[in-house]
Structures are given as structure tokens and as C-alpha cells.
Amino acid sequence: MIKTDILIVGAGPVGLFTVFEAGLLKLKCHIVDVLPQVGGQLSEIYPKKPIYDIPGYPSVLAGDLVDNLMKQIKPFKPTFTLGEKASEIKSIGDKMYQMTTDRGTVIQAPVIAIAGGLGVFTPRKPPIPNIEDYERKGIDYMVKDPEQYRDKSILIAGGGDSALDWTIELQGIAKEITLVHRRTSFRGALDSVDKVMALAQAGKVNLITEAQAIGIKGGDHLTHVTIKTKESEADIAVDYFIPLFGLTPKLGPIADWGLGIDRGSIEVNTVDYSTNVPGIYAIGDINTYEGKLKLILCGFHEGTLMVQSAFKYIYPDQKLSFKYTTVSGVNAFE
Amino acid sequence: MQEENVINITVVDRDGIEHSIDAPTDMNFNVMEICKASDLPVEGTCGGMALCASCHCYVMSDHELSTASDDEEDMLDQAFFVEDNSRLGCQIKLHNDLDGLKIKLAPVA
Q1: Which CATH number applies to A125-245: 3.30.2270.10, 3.30.1490.20, 3.50.50.60, 3.20.110.10?
Q2: What does the alpha-carbon distance between residue A274 and residue A46 come to, in Å, rounded to a whole number?
Q3: Does any domain span residue B89?
């Protein structure tokens, strides 16, 4: 069981910077994020893209901004639960919430700050009507344990790094491996592309290009995947089908927390970015209000005002005097 | 007569309904942005960086468009229902030669 002052959902730039502003008020933070690394979209979608509208930085790479934020919040010793999805919240008495993740981690805090960005990053699922019937019965959207595929026939679909890397990795473990891709060229790292091409030429990987998986068949477990090429359609017998089409954000469990939601975003009061539920705030891209702009710098502002309100909510009897960091410095936590 | 720096484009939504839109060409808009501004159901999640494919569309008219960049092709690799005339709306910049452009929104997976 983890106890903290502010439980932040989402380790993107806004969630991270909120740790700093909370730290100035001596509030401790714990961050939960479904991705295995911090940084949210900046790390997952565009780490190498420059950002030009962070005040004071004419240009900064998204990945570098995340690294700098991690340095900036270090004095306030944030704790993290990464690779787990914030699933359920419930009130457990006066000003105390309990959150449980999809892997059973339990966190208690009087305040929850949802900095969930675009939502929970989830695997893109191919639009095959009965695909959900075979999830965990032959269809996996990620490889957790390669040994699961030992001596099995597997089909991987996709053209990016993860499709190429797992084709290389699982070749030699799986009995038979087929890679299906929409085009003849791949976008992955050159080295991986070369390796896969060599494996295909050596007959160790069955490479089918300009093709896509359009159907699946089976009984209790998956048995066949239908592959459509320009000329024809054919069923391929497989034990496992691993579609690797990247991740896309979905609002996910947040939709069920009783918060006011307008077109996929959480409605907030712009005085302090509070939601309709006391003690729960929403900051950054996930919230909506009149004039909302989805900008990192706006999220920083929202997090800053939000922690002031959170302090007054947690300690209604204490006086809060605002101090500039230039005057009082950054007093690290013990 | 066509107004200066305004073109007319047609967007076919996912229910097959055609929307005729007068679009300015001097404001650096792309197809994704003009769809959003016209309240059509295009998410444009990544903001136009060719990183999400939520503006995936089919080009129905025979206008000459700039070739898709590697980034755009890479993103289309992660999309579904991709056809030969598939493009990302955010990568189609509106200019005067595109008067009469007709696109159809791709299904959402």
C-alpha cells in the first residue's frame, strides 16, 4: 500500500511538473502511468521532435524536456508506479481516495490529479470483427514471454520496429514464423530490416508483403488467419497471431469515475482545475473548458494553480503563503 | 467566379454524407484542420505531426497531390482500411490548385 498527498495519474510533462509545484508546498506526489517509461506522448510518440513554445527554450527536443523535468522534480522525491493502468478509484472516508491499478497496486491519497493527456495508451487492434473473442486465445498485442511461443506457428503483422524486432527475436524459438506487412518497404531501423530480409531469403521467415490480415478463424483457440494480398486471399494455419500496430490513446477507465465529461475530456472549473468531484482535479490535455488550448505550457499553469487549491483542500486550517523560488530556493525533501 | 484564396472542397463523412466546404488557402490550413473547423468527426489527435492516423482519408478526385513522405507512409502502416488512395489529411496542405478536391473519411478501427 502506497500513501501520498497527491496521486497523479499520468507521467507526461504536466504530471511531472506538478510534482515540482506540489513540492514547493511540501506536498508529496506519487505518479501512475500505463506506459513503462515517464514522459507520456513526448516519450512514446515524438521524443526526437523539437518543441518551440516552451518559454525560455527557443527549441527543445521532447525527450530532453522530459529528462529536464525529471531533474527538476528530483529534490521532491516523487515515487512512481509505471506500466500499470489506473483502473478504479473509490472514496474510503473523509478526504481519502483509494486507487487500484490493473495489476493490483493500491495507492491512497486525499487528492487525485488526473494528468492523463489523451488517455491510456492501448494497442491498435486490427478491425477484424471477432478479434476480441480470441484475445489471450491465440491473439496477443504484445510479447510478454517469448517462451510462450516455443515450437508454435506464429504470425506477426506490422511494419515497424516492434514487428521487425520480434520477428528476429522469435525466429529460432517459434516453429514457424510469418511476417505480414502492407508495403514492400519497412520503416524500422535499417539493421533490423536487413536482418529480416536475410532471414526471409534463408527461408527462416515467411515474409508476405503488400498484404494484410483480414480475418481469423478457430474454435476454443485461434487456428487460422486470413491474409489478403493484391491477387488473392488465403488462410494460414497458426497457433498465435501477434498484430503490432503501435499504441493509440483511449480515455479508458477514467470515463467511469463519475466525472463530468464533454467529448472525451474532463470538465473543470478554471479557478483551480477541479472536477465535479471534490478532491479530484484534471490538468493538461485531458481537461476542457472555454478557451482550452492543448499546450504543454498551459498544462504547467494548470498544475501550478491546482496544487494551491489541493493544499487548501487537504489543510483547510493552515495558512498558505506564496513564496518565489528565487527568494526561498528549492528546499528538497529529506 | 471563385473568390480569391478560397477553394471549395467536398468531404464525404463516414455515413456517406457529402459536405461542401469553402476553405481559405492563405491560412496554412490542411485537410485535417479544415475538417475539425467544420465540426466533422476527425480527431486530429497528434495535432498534425503525422503521428496518429486519426485523419486517415481517401482522395476521391484526381487532383495531383504532393507525394506522401516517409513519415506519412510509416504512419499509414499502423492504420487500418488502407487503400491505394489513402492519405493523412494533416499532410494535405490546402492551396489554390486543390479547388474541387474530394476526400472521404476512412472508417475508425
Answers
A1: 3.50.50.60
A2: 29
A3: yes
Handedness of CA B2, B6, B7, B8 (dihedral sign): negative
Are A2 and A104 within 8 A, CB to CB?
no
Return the residue matching grid coordinates 474454435: A219
| DSSP one-letter code for A18 | H
CA–CA distance, B84 with B76 (Å, rounded to integer): 11
Q: Can A2-122+248-328 and A125-245 be said to share one CATH topology? A: yes
H helices of chain A, in order, are 13-24, 41-44, 62-73, 161-170, 190-201, 296-314, 325-328
Look at residue B12 and tell me if it is in a domain: yes
| pLDDT tens per residue, range A267-283 | 999 999 999 999 999 99
Domain that holds residue B39: 6-105
Residues of chain B with pLDDT under 50: 1
Contact B49 A46 (CB under 8 A): yes
Task: Compute how many other C-beta atoms are within 10 angstroms of the C-beta atom of residue A51.
Answer: 18
ipTM confidence: 0.77
Amino acid at A317: D
Residue B8 phi/psi, 5° resolution?
-110, 125
Chain A environment of B36 (Cβ under 8 Å): none
What's the CATH fold of domain A2-122+248-328? FAD/NAD(P)-binding domain (3.50.50)
Q: The whole model's pTM is what?
A: 0.82
Contacts of B47 in chain A (CB under 8 A): 294
Residue A111's nearest CA partner among A13, A25, A37, A12 is A25
CA-only gyration radius of chain B, Å: 13
Check B78 against A49: CB less than 8 A apart.
no
